[in-house]
């Protein structure tokens, strides 16, 4: 990734471009929608054989981008033994959380507290735990699922920048995932407290959740929600949200809860539902 591309991202009107892309992606006009879908699928090598619907059956480009898959297209590993990948994509980084900080790329890190937006003072609970960052490319399936069973406790939408989140930008922009727009969700379950953070990026038209809540207007102030009195309960592998155009998911676990698979290294391809770590405790 050239430094010129990173410099350009600092200069362009990120939010204006993203809003324009969002309007185009939401269009239901066949003359715009259908060529856009077909050209995107061809350019990025989207596997339509695993999609539940075919060309011509999508209401908008957004509908295509968040397409559901055929039943059985993503078999789940044994959730009694393993932590599951929440999405299709590739490992960006993974490892221990040390002194409250997460590795972003070689020579770059950021704080858990900043990533979570100071959410309910729980950032310290992840110190000494484990994180994994998963990058979703344009061709990937863009629904995000639960890595483990859990009950939603709280969420915070944090407005921010909209830098690209591809590996080149992650290596070149300080604190990228803690600066970009994001939705940080906390869950409690047999694997203790864990976080699933959906990070937005340039031309990501929005983030949607199944509770439901949709953040497609790029709010200017944080939106904090407390779900502790409700019962939003999920099994491992259940859908929790989706991206309207590509992005990144960051998972955080408390100490002593997960050991990542030895085969996982930065750049390793993932499919939603595959085993990415061994559960070290829980029911």
From TrEMBL:
<feature type="active site" description="Schiff-base intermediate with substrate; via pyruvic acid; for decarboxylase activity">
    <location>
        <position position="247"/>
    </location>
</feature>
<dbReference type="Pfam" id="PF02666">
    <property type="entry name" value="PS_Dcarbxylase"/>
</dbReference>
<dbReference type="InterPro" id="IPR003817">
    <property type="entry name" value="PS_Dcarbxylase"/>
</dbReference>
<dbReference type="InterPro" id="IPR033177">
    <property type="entry name" value="PSD-B"/>
</dbReference>
<feature type="active site" description="Charge relay system; for autoendoproteolytic cleavage activity">
    <location>
        <position position="247"/>
    </location>
</feature>
<dbReference type="GO" id="GO:0006646">
    <property type="term" value="P:phosphatidylethanolamine biosynthetic process"/>
</dbReference>
<feature type="active site" description="Charge relay system; for autoendoproteolytic cleavage activity">
    <location>
        <position position="88"/>
    </location>
</feature>
<comment type="subunit">
    <text>Heterodimer of a large membrane-associated beta subunit and a small pyruvoyl-containing alpha subunit.</text>
</comment>
<comment type="pathway">
    <text>Phospholipid metabolism; phosphatidylethanolamine biosynthesis; phosphatidylethanolamine from CDP-diacylglycerol: step 2/2.</text>
</comment>
<comment type="function">
    <text>Catalyzes the formation of phosphatidylethanolamine (PtdEtn) from phosphatidylserine (PtdSer).</text>
</comment>
<keyword id="KW-0210">Decarboxylase</keyword>
<keyword id="KW-0444">Lipid biosynthesis</keyword>
<dbReference type="InterPro" id="IPR033178">
    <property type="entry name" value="PSD_type1_pro"/>
</dbReference>
<feature type="active site" description="Charge relay system; for autoendoproteolytic cleavage activity">
    <location>
        <position position="145"/>
    </location>
</feature>
<keyword id="KW-0865">Zymogen</keyword>
<comment type="pathway">
    <text>Lipid metabolism.</text>
</comment>
<keyword id="KW-0594">Phospholipid biosynthesis</keyword>
<keyword id="KW-1208">Phospholipid metabolism</keyword>
<dbReference type="GO" id="GO:0005886">
    <property type="term" value="C:plasma membrane"/>
</dbReference>
<feature type="site" description="Cleavage (non-hydrolytic); by autocatalysis">
    <location>
        <begin position="246"/>
        <end position="247"/>
    </location>
</feature>
<feature type="modified residue" description="Pyruvic acid (Ser); by autocatalysis">
    <location>
        <position position="247"/>
    </location>
</feature>
<protein>
    <recommendedName>
        <fullName>Phosphatidylserine decarboxylase proenzyme</fullName>
        <ecNumber>4.1.1.65</ecNumber>
    </recommendedName>
</protein>
<keyword id="KW-0443">Lipid metabolism</keyword>
<keyword id="KW-0456">Lyase</keyword>
<keyword id="KW-0472">Membrane</keyword>
<keyword id="KW-1003">Cell membrane</keyword>
<dbReference type="GO" id="GO:0004609">
    <property type="term" value="F:phosphatidylserine decarboxylase activity"/>
</dbReference>
<comment type="similarity">
    <text>Belongs to the phosphatidylserine decarboxylase family. PSD-B subfamily. Prokaryotic type I sub-subfamily.</text>
</comment>
<keyword id="KW-0670">Pyruvate</keyword>
């Amino acid at each position: 990734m050239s430094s010129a591309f990173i410099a350009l991202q600092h200069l362009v009107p990120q939010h204006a471009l993203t809003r324009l892309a969002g309007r185009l992606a939401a269009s239901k006009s066949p003359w715009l929608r259908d060529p856009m879908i077909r050209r995107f699928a061809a350019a990025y090598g989207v596997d339509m054989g695993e999609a539940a619907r075919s060309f011509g059956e999508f209401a908008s480009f957004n509908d295509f981008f968040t397409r559901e898959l055929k039943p059985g297209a993503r078999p789940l590993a044994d959730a009694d033994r393993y932590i599951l990948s929440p999405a299709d994509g590739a490992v960006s980084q993974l490892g221990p959380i040390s002194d409250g900080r997460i590795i972003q790329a070689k020579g770059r890190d950021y704080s858990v507290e900043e990533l979570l937006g100071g959410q309910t003072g729980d950032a310290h609970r992840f110190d000494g735990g484990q994180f994994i960052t998963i990058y979703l490319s344009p061709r990937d399936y863009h629904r995000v699922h639960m890595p483990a069973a859990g009950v939603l406790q709280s969420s915070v939408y944090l407005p921010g920048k909209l830098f690209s989140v591809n590996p080149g930008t992650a290596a070149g922009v300080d604190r990228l995932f803690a600066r970009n727009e994001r939705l940080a969700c906390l869950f409690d379950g047999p694997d203790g407290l864990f976080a699933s953070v959906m990070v937005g990026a340039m031309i990501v038209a929005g983030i949607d959740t199944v509770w439901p809540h949709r953040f497609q207007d790029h709010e200017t102030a944080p939106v904090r929600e407390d779900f502790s009195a409700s019962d939003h309960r999920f099994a491992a592998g259940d859908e929790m949200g989706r991206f309207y155009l590509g992005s990144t998911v960051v998972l955080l676990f408390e100490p002593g809860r997960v050991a990542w698979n030895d085969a996982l290294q930065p750049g390793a391809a993932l499919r939603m539902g595959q085993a990415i770590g061994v559960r070290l405790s829980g029911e």
